[in-house]
């Protein structure tokens, strides 16, 4: 049994990712992170709220101490929603688009991760609180692969990331960075163990002329590679699908010295010392 999230639902959000997280449900695309571009979380599902739960977060100076789980019974299955401070209570019914509450800056996030709604689905009778056990999940939208030559101008910075200006994307709808062979990629290259292909494929994948992984359907196993920006070692590349101006996000776990306006050239090379965060 698999669940497909409709295009009408996904279109409420600016970005989505099935694999760009170390959380267990993302390992094989059994969860999706939805980025609304606002602090209010619109419900991605319709159903009855059956439980809300507050949990402690790992202590992070940039994040809150508590995160939240909202369980919504859809009838055929139960939706698990994370990273939203609930403004709903058990017994309430919600429709798609109804406000669930405010997004939280969770201690489960890396510092470079934007606030988002985490969504997954479980069969009735399964443990609804455990991190594993969710159903395979797909999104009912087409994603256009966009080529990138590894260069760009810094248009946004954070303590542990930079964002480059968008490659030329003369298209509407969702786009994602393409491998050298035109496969739209998803996940944390290479800092998260698992990656994904937003168009199922099989075989070797390369990016910027370097083999970076092997695809088996939607799942990608990353090779041991290192990323450098203007020769500076980076943690990895954050990959996702976006329907707003698309620009690569480069992660530097221990900080960086770049500023808005800098021109960067990114290279990828094999290594025996990859950065692995989860």
Describe how the helices and strands are arranged.
Elements (H helix, E strand, L loop, with lengths): L2 E3 L1 H4 L4 E3 L14 E4 L4 E3 L4 E10 L9 E8 L4 E5 L1 E3 L6 E2 L4 E5 L13 E6 L14 E3 L3 E4 L4 E8 L2 E4 L9 E4 L7 E5 L4 E14 L2 E13 L2 E5 L2 E3 L1 E4 L1 E2 L6 E3 L11 E8 L8
Commentary on this structure:
- By secondary structure, the protein is mainly beta.
- The protein folds into 2 domains: 3-139, Glucose Permease (Domain IIA); 143-270, no CATH class.
- Helices cover 1% and strands 47% of the residues.
- The protein is built from 1 helix and 25 strands.
- It has one helix spanning 7-10, and strands at 3-5, 15-17, 32-35, 40-42, 47-56, 66-73, 78-82, 84-86, 93-94, 99-103, 117-122, 137-139, 143-146, 151-158, 161-164, 174-177, 185-189, 194-207, 210-222, 225-229, 232-234, 236-239, 241-242, 249-251, 263-270.
- The strands form 4 sheets. The chain has a 10-stranded mixed beta sheet, with no helix packed on it. Strands 19-18-17-22-24-15-14-25-20-21 form a 10-stranded antiparallel beta sheet, with no helix packed on it.
- Strand 17 (185-189) and strand 18 form a beta hairpin.
- It is globular.
- The two termini are 27 Å apart.
- The mean pLDDT is 93.
User: Main β-sheet, in a few words?
Assistant: 10 strands, mixed
Helix count equals 1
How much helix, percentage-wise, in residues?
under 10%
Total domains: 2
Low-confidence runs of at least 5 consecutive residues: none
- Specify the overall morphology: globular
Count of distinct strands:
25
Calculate Rg over CA atoms: 18 Å
Strand portion: over 45%
In sequence order, what are the helices and strands, one letter per element?
EHEEEEEEEEEEEEEEEEEEEEEEEE
CATH-wise, what's the superfamily of the largest domain?
Glucose Permease (Domain IIA)
- The class by helix and strand makeup works out as mainly beta
> How do the strands line up in the largest sheet?
9-5-6-7-11-3-2-23-16-13
CATH topology of the largest domain: Glucose Permease (Domain IIA)
Mean pLDDT: 93
